[in-house]
Amino acid sequence: MKVLMFGWEFPPQISGGLGTACYGLTQALVREDVDVLFVVPKLMGNEPDNGSRLLSASEVGIRQVVSTDSADQPFTRFRHFMKEGSFTTFEIPSTLSTYNMAHLHEPVQHIEHWNYPLNVAETAVEKTTVVTQSISGALYDFKGGYGPQLIEEVFRYANVASEIAIAEQFDIIHAHDWMTYPAAIAAKRLSSKPMVVHVHATEFDRAGQQGSEMVYTIEREGLDEADKIVAVSEWTKRIMVDRYDIDPDKIVVVHNGVIPEERTITETKQNLGSHVVTFLGRITYQKGPEYFVEAAEKVLTLFPDVHFIMAGSGDFLPQIIEKVARMKLSSQFHFTGFLKKHEIDQVLASTSVYVMPSVSEPFGITPLEAIQRNVPIIISNQSGVSEVMHHALKVDFWDTEALSQAICSVLHYNSLSRELKRNAGKAIDLITWEKAAQRLNNLYYELTSNIHPN
Asked: How many domains does the chain have?
């Protein structure tokens, strides 16, 4: 089985759980004798070898000439982002921040000369032929990541996907999250191969009701075009059914796994005191950092010597720091910024309890990594990992009273802490990428056997 897989992150260049998941999943698929060609916008040269073939989109030459009214147009259409008038336009925001794209609907400049995947044939605007310039063997210099160039690179990536679809032999297409959906659609329309989209998060997870209409439209188009959808949890499946009107029979739930590591039993207490409570993740709306702070205030009334670590970066960080200062908790809070793996290990080695109060968490790999470091966990009910991790304390993200009581219980009762560690340590051995890869491999064979191109 040969899989053309489109991703956006790969270790060690990661911003969240997506890259970690792609690494673990592709490694396990290779062990299932699946030939994976994993494409990312840009490789840095220091990626670990996990057996898959890595391809940098920055090294793929573009040779095609494509027009927006072509009958062979391989790309999808995005009707909501076409201005009325005689020429097609695509609105690109001047600034974007990681996983915070609620402002994408704001009007901005008209971007010209790039082969964006627009099709005006069935829109309300006047149909106009717009032919891109032929770029013979030219390379796009992708930056990768989630900066101000994100939307532009998403559609450049789709152009590159067309070239790859022509040049490579593969049986099935597998795309990870919305940034790769236009690329997967382009590859599907040129190759007529079945397409799987893997949903690690939706715009409703990232931004709630204030999300980007543009991103939602791209997500919806990808979900509609997919032959099968993989959700990382039942939680995510329900969101797609309720918010995107997707047939539940089209969705397969495949829980994430965790890369096996020897459990670290030794606890190293640093000079922060005997009790350390850790929040580890992006400091964004989705992760619920404000609820962590509000629960911390309640905990400190009973345990005044507790220190709280917020490890990570994100668009909510400035207002969380301001909130901590306003609540006069600064002496007990420590903001680390984004941490590398060995730094995370150091933080977890001194952690008494790990807390994930996410508002909407499709899965959540970090709690499993905390368990590997022998740390008891408290997670929100609004998370996918709560479906597979039964030996954890669980609360509703908004219930800061229940969250503070759970933290205090772990800190006060050593027997509870030990029991959570012991049982979770046994359970984590059953949450593997091998199981996920086996299910996906079966899905690949099902699709390639049952779907016949026209």
From this structure: 2
